[in-house]
Design goal:
By secondary structure, the protein is α+β, with helices and mostly antiparallel strands. It has 2 domains: 138 residues, 2-Layer Sandwich (60s Ribosomal Protein L30, Chain: A); 154 residues, PurM-like C-terminal domain (Phosphoribosyl-aminoimidazole Synthetase, Chain A, domain 2, Alpha-Beta Complex), CATH 3.90.650.10. 30% of the residues lie in helices and 27% in strands. It contains 8 helices and 13 strands. The strands form 2 sheets. Strands 8-10-7-11-9-12-13 form a 7-stranded mixed beta sheet, sandwiched between helices. Helix 3 links the parallel strand 4 and strand 5. The N and C termini lie close together (7 Å).
């Protein structure tokens, strides 16, 4: 049983109550707690030594990544982050200064995005370190963007470049909070999510949630320079386009809009975010499959993104 099969098994009969607007299955839970004009966003995520970072990773970057991952999920809902709780589990032998530097990196990114660090928990975890983040945010009532709103005929867009996260970008990315807020304010975004497990897998999540299919254009994929260099210099590396589809930890925005808005969106984006790419990579179609079009050939996309317990 892989990660997503396990999630489906565990979430099929979760308790709920009247506060739940959107529960398991999206980037954040969306809750109605009676706050005037606002809904609450709630997100949790963890980084684990040996999975998301190594013993050699600079501690400031570990802390930064731990919080930035959750900030990216708040962005995917077009929300604003507010406050975070931090749980850190440490092996019995640890260096106090190393842990302090983790918090230094975390605090720096929290201050940058106006997030209050309001407490948490410390505990032991024999053998390896784990940091778990619980993040609250808000979104204007009725303005949350879910994964499940993609419509047949929509254009599919992605911000930034994809692939090559192992070159270090997974530790240094900027959550697309400003970009997501601008998109939500100026365009009717039908569906949006962040790319954490790889485009090939995450687009399937969006398509499944929206009960639609999709066609990706291989020639349009915004492949990162790091992925291209890795493919060129190492015989063991993935082809660059495959890296863009499957490497994961890109933390870019994947979203859909009506095709009629695509050109207007691209023109406005260039004026507001001239240093960040925005690329139309395909379209939403009827059906339940995701396809890849390579020149004159269209075939079912067989590649998958990152999966825990594959």
């Amino acid at each position: 049983m892989n990660e997503f099969e396990l999630i489906a098994h565990l979430t099929k009969s979760l308790p709920t109550n009247a506060s739940v607007v959107a529960g398991a299955g999206d980037d954040c839970a969306v809750l109605d707690l009676g706050v005037p004009d606002k809904l609450i966003l709630f997100k949790t995520d963890a980084v684990v030594e040996g999975v998301h970072f190594t013993k050699e990773t600079p501690p400031e970057k570990i802390g930064r990544k731990a919080l930035a991952r959750c900030l990216s999920d708040i962005a995917a809902m077009a929300g604003t982050p507010t406050a975070v709780l931090v749980t850190i589990a440490l092996p019995k032998k640890f260096e106090v200064e190393f842990v302090a530097k983790i918090y230094s990196g975390l605090n720096e990114v929290a201050e940058k995005y106006g997030v209050a660090v309001v407490g948490g928990e410390t505990t032991t975890n024999p053998g390896r370190m784990l940091i778990s983040i619980s993040l609250l945010g808000t979104v204007p009532r009725g303005k949350q963007i879910l994964r499940s709103g993609a419509k047949v005929g929509d254009a599919i867009f992605v911000t930034g470049e994809l692939g090559g996260s192992l070159a270090g970008r997974h530790l240094e990315f900027e959550p697309r909070l400003a970009e997501a807020g601008w998109l939500a304010e100026h365009f009717h975004i039908h569906a949006m999510m962040d790319l954490s497990d790889g485009l090939a897998g995450d687009l399937r999540h969006m398509a499944n949630g929206s009960k639609v299919g999709a066609i990706l254009l291989k020639s349009a994929l915004p492949v990162s320079r790091a992925a291209k260099l890795r493919a060129k210099e190492s015989s063991d590396a993935k082809p660059a386009a495959l890296a863009a589809l499957t490497d994961g930890e890109d933390f870019e925005l994947l979203f859909t809009v009506a095709s009629k808005d695509a050109v207007k969106l691209l023109d406005a984006w260039k004026k507001n975010f001239p240093h960040t790419k925005l690329t139309c990579i395909g379209k939403i179609v009827a059906g339940e499959e995701v396809f890849l079009r390579d020149k004159a050939t269209t075939h079912k996309l067989n590649a998958h993104g990152y999966v825990h317990f594959p």
